[in-house]
Write a structure and sequence with these properties.
This protein has helices spanning about 45-55, 95-100, 115-125, 140-155, 170-185, 200, 225-230; strands at about 5-15, 20-30, 35-40, 60-65, 75-80, 160-165, 190-195, 205-210, 215-220. It is α/β, with parallel strands linked by helices and about 260 residues long. Helix 3 crosses helix 4 (about 140-155).
């Protein structure tokens, strides 16, 4: 049975103050794909995520998430921005921050309930931080804080997880463990990760979306060093793994 589309973008263009950032973008991502989004700084990667979230409006074209306008389904999306700031002096624990992911449109005012706490604890456990639940957020390392912010996104039980450069505060060993965790999460939901670590992410991804004003999607097995060099303007190390092909296994798709 074919998997349902989660993100559908058709003929989309977007500009900031008249400067075109994305042009004629067509992209379809289906249920439980693991997508790595790559491209040079200023190429439009973060803009693409914000359009999927409905935080920005396209100049032309359309975006549908779960076959609806993004605003209608934002509660079904978990998002970790590139620069998420929580004042380290604010007196909250890791659990408090994770429970923030339970706040959504339409929620009644009042304290978090047991269901909220259980969801937050499960999310911390997924990120390997349940033992730090009662630790002040300010006392955590940079990498632990980043994982708490990801737990906050997971606590809302999303069906789509968007992460913008989520490993900037993690060392190489922890980063690899992090992507192993994302692969497990990907068993139950769709994952889209913006990253500069092309070689590290591609073993976990089903496809790579290359963003440089235009958008092209490649199976990871098809992504060559020449394509990466063309995208970034320099040579980069690439680990090739897995692929996204048609049912026959021979015809790979580019959009």
């Amino acid at each position: 049975m074919d998997r349902k589309p989660v993100i559908e973008i058709q003929r989309l263009s977007f500009a900031y103050n008249g400067f075109t950032v994305l042009e004629d973008v067509n992209l379809t991502i289906v249920d439980r794909e693991f997508i790595c989004v790559v491209g040079p700084n200023g190429g439009g990667k973060t803009t693409l995520l914000k359009l999927v979230l409905g935080l920005l409006r396209p100049l032309r074209g359309s975006v549908r998430v779960f076959q609806e306008p993004p605003d209608n389904v934002r509660h079904r999306i978990g998002y970790v921005p590139q620069h998420a700031y929580i004042d380290p002096l604010f007196p909250v624990t890791a659990l408090d921050v994770a429970r923030m992911g339970r706040i959504r449109k339409g929620r009644r005012l009042g304290p978090f309930n047991k269901k909220d706490t259980n969801a937050a604890m499960n999310a911390l456990h997924t990120m390997g931080l349940d033992a730090f639940a009662r630790v002040p957020f300010a006392a955590l390392s940079g990498g632990q804080r980043q994982r708490v912010l990801i737990a906050r996104a997971l606590a809302g039980d999303p069906e789509l997880l968007l992460l913008d450069e989520p490993t900037t505060s993690l060392d190489l060993h922890v980063e690899n463990q992090f992507y192993e965790t994302l692969r497990e999460i990907n068993r139950r939901l769709t994952v889209v990760v913006v990253s500069h670590d092309v070689g590290l992410v591609t073993p976990f991804a089903t496809s790579v979306v290359c963003v440089k004003r235009h958008v092209v999607i490649h199976p990871t097995s098809e992504l060559s060093g020449d394509k990466i060099a063309e995208l970034y303007g320099t040579d980069m190390l690439l680990v090739r793994h897995d692929h996204r092909c048609s049912a026959g296994g021979h015809e790979c798709r580019n959009l």
